Amino acid sequence: MAFVSNGTTIADAGAFSASLGSMVLIKTLTASSSATLSFVNGSSSVVLDGTYPIYKFVFINMHPETNGKGFGVNFSDDTSSHSYDLTKTSSVIETYHAEDGSESTVGYQTGVHLAQSTGIQYLTAEDNVGNGNDECANGEIYLFNPASTTYIKHYSTMCSYNSNGTHCNSMRISGYINTTAAVTAAQFKFKSGNIDAGTIKLYGIKDS
Amino acid sequence: MGLISNGTTLLDGGSISSGLAGSMNLIKTVTASSSGTISFVHGSSSVVFDNTYSVYCIKGINIHNSTSDELGFNGSIDTGSNYNVTKTTTHFYVIHADNGTQGHLYYNASEDLAQATGFQNLTSASQMGTNNDDCADGELWIYNPSSTTFMKHFLARFPYMDSRSPQYVYDCYTTGYFNTTSAIDAIQFKMGSGNIDSGTFKLYGVS
Fold first, then answer.
1. How does strand B8-12 pair with strand B196-206?
2. Per-residue pLDDT tens for A181-196?
3. Residues in B touching A30 (Cβ below 8 Å)
4. Which of A97, A122, A140 is nearest to B57 (CA)?
5. Which chain B positions have a beta carbon within 8 Å of A1's beta carbon?
6. What is the 3-state secondary structure (H, E, C) of A86-131?
7. Which of B65, B74, B162, B174 is nearest to B116 (CA)?
């Protein structure tokens, strides 16, 4: 039975007819001295398949337990017993500026770009996210059509973070997961030590 | 009472069922008309800018200025009484001229801030054009502004046409943080001089 208000069909056949927006929150994970945070399709209500053509991860106030460790992500194409080791190639633009006004620059960052590597894709520099009480990393990742079995899977990121108590840092990364297998999971962690605190949200973006 | 259609619960308990509602929630639209400033103040004019959302996005659309200058923003910790929060930022841009010259990437040390309280420019040193069809468009993301634990990071990207001839397209990237553990409860935009002649600013909360 349709739900009609003032002549307009609001809902019918198990779905809303009226637009409710195209970016849908799928899952929120909150770290509490967590070694990793993982989003696995089909587990804990996570959807990371062909339901949406684009997925977006937003990470908020990621605070490392250990000072000076990079924050990053890796992906899996397994359907169980996930290993996070997919081959990736990426490019990185880094910019930073010190609170005393020194060391301002923008440039290509070879430290965390990847060339057919299965290792973690750092979203920050590898060794410098600060763990001062008020320091953290924030940003987002777009992952395009992870369920495709035809194409490689592109991703783009942006991140702002504190380093070493004195610097404002930013990274923007573009890359691809070089596989035609469906990507089924993503895992976030610091280079070493736990994620002391922070929230990561997974959204799906509809195509219709 | 829930609203169930074709066996699917669409509404129940006063909210839309999980996975159905959109997460980009339009909070407020403000349209400039020869405006000295554009402000979003929590608790004023239906603006929400607190811990209701952990991420906020402000989109600027067709921002047209009356005087060649730069578009900037600042934050407040006293609901708009003062816009003077300490910030450290980076600012770089990519440019290309209408005549095909000068395709470059630059860090702009005149537009970054180091523990400064002034407005952070979102456009760059070559000032925005004032031709009828010139404007700036972009978005500013602010993370967890109500936190009383962490600094408040922001990321912005604003492309625009400058005021020279031949004109240049500037694609400006600004990143930084409000270096305070007080909650940020208001954001203000203004030109370095002159008014914001026209344009629309939209504030979204990301749920």
1. unpaired
2. 999 999 999 999 999 9
3. none
4. A140
5. 5
6. CCEEEEEEEEEEECCCCCCEEEECCCCCCCCECCCEECCCCCCCCC
7. B74
Q: Is residue B4 part of a domain?
A: no
Count CB pairs under 8 A between chains A and B: 145
Q: What is the pLDDT along chain B (207 residues), one digit of tens a residue?
A: 677 777 777 777 766 766 667 899 999 999 999 999 999 999 999 999 999 999 999 999 999 998 999 999 999 999 999 999 999 999 999 999 999 988 999 999 999 999 999 999 999 977 898 999 999 999 999 999 999 999 999 999 999 999 888 899 999 999 999 999 999 999 999 999 999 999 999 999 999
Give me the interface pTM, i.e. the ipTM.
Answer: 0.91
pTM, to two decimals: 0.93
pLDDT 10s digits, A1-14: 677 777 777 777 77
B79 domain residue, yes or no: yes
For A3, A64, A128, A139, A166, the CA distances from A175, given in Å and listed in that order, are 45, 25, 22, 16, 29
Given CB atoms, is A25 within the 8 Å cutoff of chain B?
yes
Tally of structural domains, chain B: 1
In a domain, B187, yes or no: yes
Q: Any CB–CB contact under 8 A between A26 and chain B? A: yes
> Is B14 a member of any domain?
no
**In terms of residue numbers, what domain contains B46?**
23-206
Residues of B in contact with A158 (CB under 8 A): 155, 175
User: Angle at Cα B120 formed by Cα B118 and Cα B124, nearest 5°?
Assistant: 130
List A residues 105-144 in contact with B (Cβ-Cβ < 8 A). 105-106, 133-140
What CATH number is associated with residue B164?
A: 2.60.120
Who's near B70: CB < 8 A, 6+ residues apart? Answer: B111, B121, B122, B123, B124, B125, B127, B128, B191, B192
Interface with A, mutate which of B151, B171, B202 (most A CBs under 10 A): B151
